[in-house]
Design a protein that fits this description.
The complex is a heterodimer of chains A (about 170) and B (about 230).
Chain A (H helix, E strand, L loop, with lengths): L1 H6 L3 E5 L5 H13 L15 E5 L5 E3 L2 H4 L1 E5 L6 E5 H7 L3 H10 L5 H7 L1 E3 L7 H6 L2 E2 L15 H6 L14
Parallel strand pairs in A: 1-2, 1-7, 2-6
Antiparallel strand pairs in A: 4-5
Chain B lengths: L12 H10 L27 E7 L4 H6 L5 H8 E7 L16 H4 L11 H4 L12 H4 L3 H17 L23 E3 L46
Antiparallel strand pairs in B: 1-2
The chains are: A alpha/beta (about 170), B alpha+beta (about 230).
Pfam families (chain B): Ribosomal_S18
Subcellular location (chain B): Mitochondrion
Family (chain B): Belongs to the bacterial ribosomal protein bS18 family. Mitochondrion-specific ribosomal protein mL66 subfamily.
């Protein structure tokens, strides 16, 4: 029974809301290869399934939405296409995550099977059979900062005022 | 005006929180819980905030008869009486370094704030999101620039949703803009062009993240601050 438990293929869930796709992709790639298990070996198929939700709400740091370019060539003359991350995301919200994970997996024939074990969903809703299979949810890599309206008024008041406005200045 | 207490106490919560924050990545400001007892300690140079209040007084028949021979603007000026009321602000905790000029140096926050510390940044902005002038806030030049940069990054990250400029009435947005989440954006969104040719490894065109003005910030944790991704 213990042997069944060690060699079983588990299903992991990752929420990609407000997370950088690269960090999510590293977590996915490690678990798809099976490198998080002490019984890992490249030949033996020890990878797990990974389900990523909310890929539409991914957050890029810096100006990557405008600057990062995804290029492809369909081998016809004049078939070189370059698309910014923003345009690609609007066209297909799962594409950025998929390309990120694909680039992090080892370049061998196992890569395609590992990509088949990766399940991406743009929003929260999952089909029933996947929901039943899930075993563990992984913590988010990036700590999401709180917005100003998410602080309670007591917390906002408890924060000390750093400066006092001079005499006749009209505040805001 | 507020009464001045003689007690001067050092605000130990900052140093206490710093020890706590060393073990985690949460910025210290999100952990501050000031007990209500502290509000009575310390003497802060406290002046009430001056609010401009407009009071409308109804036109009395007596007044209008008396002033009937005067010009119109005089009557209008009498109807709307403008008063300045000074509100009493409750005494807050004392800064640990009260002799400094800049408020950030007074509270020893030189390299400790980031774009996520919205409670700090919201004290230096107007209601439509713009920065308050330096001569009013009393910030020194470098800290004013750093705070401006952090405020811009916070706006682009969507952390200040209520501080948007007022749209003119009847303004219909042409197309709904794509809501893309971002953080640590250095440049303005429309000003940046895509990098079509990134170059080889030795001459790669990197994407800039964060801002070099904030490079001296204290890093809680082993990770180094990467400005070029």
């Amino acid at each position: 029974m213990k042997q069944w438990a060690t060699f079983a293929r588990s299903w992991y869930l990752i929420d990609a809301r407000m997370q950088p796709p690269g960090k999510i992709a590293t977590m996915c790639a490690i678990r798809l290869q099976g490198k998080h298990k002490p019984i890992y070996h490249a030949i033996s198929d020890v990878g797990d399934h990974v389900v990523v939700i909310n890929t539409r709400h991914i957050a890029f740091s810096g100006n990557k939405w405008e600057q990062k370019v995804y290029s492809s060539h369909n081998q016809y003359p004049g078939g070189f296409k370059q698309v910014t991350a923003a345009q690609l995301h609007l066209k297909d919200p799962k594409a950025i995550m998929k390309l990120a994970v694909y680039g992090m997996l080892p370049r061998n024939l196992h890569r395609r099977t590992m990509m088949q074990r990766l399940h991406l969903f743009p929003e929260d809703d999952l089909p029933e059979d996947i929901l039943q299979n899930l075993t563990e949810e992984l913590p988010q890599p990036r700590e999401v900062p709180r917005r100003l309206d998410q602080y309670t008024p007591e917390e906002q008041e408890a924060f000390p005022r750093l400066w006092t406005p001079p005499g006749d200045y009209r505040v805001k | 005006m507020a009464a001045r207490c003689v007690l001067g106490s050092i605000w130990t919560s900052i140093s206490g929180v710093r020890c706590m924050a060393n073990s985690s990545n949460i910025s210290p400001f999100q952990r501050i819980t000031i007990s209500p007892q502290l509000l009575f300690f310390g003497s802060v140079q406290n002046r009430g905030i001056r609010h401009v209040v407009e009071k409308k007084e109804g036109k009395t028949t007596v007044v209008s008869e008396k002033l009937a021979y005067l010009k119109c603007w005089f009557i209008i000026a009498h109807c709307f009486m403008i008063e300045g009321l000074t509100e009493d602000v409750p005494v807050g905790p004392q800064p640990p370094n009260p002799t400094a000029q800049c408020p950030i140096y007074r509270w020893n926050l030189q390299n400790k704030y980031n774009y996520t510390d919205v409670l700090l940044l919201s004290q230096f902005i107007r209601s439509d999101g713009g920065m308050l002038p330096r001569r009013v806030t009393g910030l020194c030049a470098q800290e004013h620039r750093k705070i401006t940069i952090c405020v811009q990054m916070a706006h682009r990250a969507g952390l200040l949703p209520k501080h948007k400029p007022p749209l003119p009435e009847g303004h219909i947005p042409k197309k709904p803009k794509p809501q893309l989440n971002r953080y640590l954006t250095r440049w303005s969104i429309d000003s940046v062009k895509p990098i079509y040719r990134t170059g080889l490894k030795w001459c790669k065109k990197r994407i800039s993240v964060g801002h070099p003005a904030l490079k001296d910030n204290v890093q809680y944790g082993k990770k180094i601050l990467y400005l070029k991704h």
